[in-house]
Automatic annotation (TrEMBL):
Database matches in Pfam families: DZR_2, Pribosyltran
Coiled-coil region(s): none
Gene3D superfamilies: 3.40.50.2020
UniProt source species: Aromatoleum toluvorans
Similarity field: Belongs to the ComF/GntX family.
Domain Phosphoribosyltransferase as annotated: residue spans: 134-217
UniProt name for this protein: ComF family protein
InterPro entries: ComF/GntX_DNA_util-trans, DZR_2, PRTase-like, PRTase_dom
Domain (Double zinc ribbon) ranges: 11-61
Length: 229
């Protein structure tokens, strides 16, 4: 009955494709736009920045981040940027399961991993009303059959936006920004986020998780910003 109801609803109230506006049926994107989503081909296995031959990039070789691996579903270019921004700033919560589905194929390396979202500071959470990373992580953990814990880590410092700061100041800006509320001794933690830019925030979160015993921290991000031109 549930399937029949969904099919009937899709026929009576079809969606317009979020990208091109054409009939998408029950989906958020039509078939051609879904097929044309930009792909991340060869990337650094640690930070997911595009590199030739998929080798560890020079930056990660010079300074090893606290996290162990990163996978990004899309490069942060059109239309991925519009999808993420519509969820984050436009309250289009229906996009969260779709973005989670893009990450579903990139399974975590450990069947006993814990899935945690990048936390928001309580002030920003009150202003926005939801944590977009948690909205993506929840259906992703369900699809993987893994434990999801939105309260495992909290953001205790409401730091200035990273985009406005030089690299060194970005790292200093995040010192002590997170606090763990649980123990992760010997566990793999999968951190889910919407966009990865420099990786400084994910690095600090991984550092915090490992200080509480996490054996590995791996990132699954919807979109990765490209290298600057």
């Amino acid at each position: 009955m549930g399937t029949l109801s969904r099919l009937l609803a899709a026929r009576l109230m079809p969606n317009d494709c979020f990208v091109c506006g054409q009939d998408a049926g029950p989906a958020l994107l039509c078939g051609p736009c879904r097929a044309d989503l930009p792909q991340v081909s060869e990337a650094c296995p640690v930070c997911a920045i595009p590199v030739q031959d998929g080798l560890v990039c020079g930056s990660c070789q010079r300074t090893t981040p606290a996290f162990d691996a990163t996978v990004a579903a899309l490069p942060y270019v059109f239309p991925a940027d519009r999808l993420v921004q519509a969820l984050k700033y436009g309250n289009r919560l229906a996009l969260a399961p779709f973005l989670a589905s893009l990450l579903e194929a990139f399974a975590p390396p450990d069947e006993d991993a814990i899935v945690v979202p990048m936390p928001l500071h309580s002030r920003r959470l009150r202003e926005r009303g939801f944590n977009q990373a948690a909205e993506i992580a929840r259906p992703l953990a369900r699809a993987w059959g893994l434990r999801f814990d939105a309260a495992a880590v909290e953001r205790v410092r409401d730091t200035p936006p990273q985009a406005s700061l030089p690299w060194l100041e970005r790292r200093l800006n995040l010192r002590g920004a997170f606090r763990c509320r649980g123990e992760f001794a010997g566990r793999t933690v999968v951190v889910v986020d919407d966009v990865m830019t420099t990786g400084a925030t994910l690095d600090e979160l991984a550092r915090t998780l490992k200080s509480r015993g996490a054996a590995r921290v791996v990132n699954r991000v919807v979109a990765r910003t490209p290298l600057p031109a």
